[in-house]
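$ run holo --ligand "EPU" --emit tokens
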Amino acid sequence: MDKFVINGGKALKGEVRISGAKNAAVAILPAAMLADSPCVIENVPEISDVTAILRAMQCLGAEIRYINRSTVQIDPTHINSFIVSKEMADGMRASSYFLGALLGRMHRAKVAPPGGCNLGVRPIDQHIKGFEALGAEMSIENGMVEGKAPILRGASIYLDVVSVGATINIMLAAVKAKGLTVIENAAREPHIVDLANFLNSMGANIMGAGTNVIKVRGVDSLFGATYSIIPDQIEAGTYMAAAVATGGDVLLTNVTPKHLESITAKLREIGADITEYDEAVHVVMNRRPKKCNVKTFPHPGFPTDMQPQIATVLTIADGTSIVTEGVWDSRFRYAEQLILMGADIQVDGKMAVITGVEAINPAPVKAVDLRAGAAMIIAGLMAKGTTEIDNIDHIDRGYENIVEKFSALGADIKRIPKIEGRVVFKRA
Ligand code: EPU
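-- output --
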């Protein structure tokens, strides 16, 4: 596996353009399978999760054509399979969206369970409950989740937990169901609104996305549309946190400041000066970070996907901060890595107590999951000296051109390719 090598201790300065949102892309691309004609999706991030989704769609019979680096044309008219095998789903958390999209299109789906980040137990009981309410017969056999639904009928579904995945999956299955589906206690993340906007641009009838009650009135068919994915809230938040962590001065472009409100509020509390423009934010940090308590919640709360990055900033804060995880069972596995770098963190279940130190030090560390990997990069940029980060394929899942983007901000970061199966000896 490749490594990142970072020579840290420099303030980030300059401008970075944020890519399309990963978590919107992994829903919108499978959603294009519901159309009766080709879709063109713009602002698609070049990340390995997207490659995995497009490869799986191709295996199902969709024709995929890149028009340019971030624009993909998807022709779903020849889709002839409803099976997403383990090989196709491997490493892709969003494989579950094939359940909703294939039930909507083919009335049948057989999908291997999701891979992706290990954040503790990742159940899909709420997805299954939703599909069953719509009339699908669901089963799990030989490690594959299977659904059959000769007819999908609108239903009223109350989610027991606010789940992004279940909300998206139910929307995908319900858009072409007969009658009205009401999803209560729905997730409200920006990517849910983005998916609803995309489906509506294809002729769907979805109301209330962005609130906790979403109403989907089924339509007979959907047509292809051209649609541009929203900017990535978490990628933006990661660069904002990196700017704050290094005492930098960074302008982020192609962002939606409204989607960043909870992140902006916390970084301001930590001491950053943040100016919002229509589609940009400017982050300046001139002081040691102040302590701050953070608790993650579903949107519009502070996003769990920014928890490792902000916790990393707090390792050098003046005082003790408490970070509480309110979404996942386990999202502090990265703390061990920061401790190797000299951070003072005590984790107790869903809470971490971080006592700020003057500085953290370089060390060989690894990315234990995607956002933890982003946190390791921030830590490497903060520590004076050379930090090596292993297991970086996690980071490739969700961050486009991360080396190029950080380098353009003045960071000294390199990807070191691993030479597989070959031992190179130096000549005497
Ligand atoms: N949950 C259930 N039952 C379900 C589904 C979820 O109990 O059927 C629980 C989960 O165990 C968790 C909570 O509900 O405790 C929230 O899970 P959710 O379904 O919202 O998460 P997800 O859809 O699997 C998406 C993102 C994650 C992000 C979460 C929360 C994608 C592809 N993934 O996951 O993103 O952490 O929402 O915002 O959209 C990441 O990008 O790094 C990432 C992990």
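-- notes --
The pocket of EPU is lined by residues 23, 26, 93-94, 117, 119, 121-127, 161, 163-166, 187, 304-305, 327-328, 370-371, 398 (CB under 6 Å).
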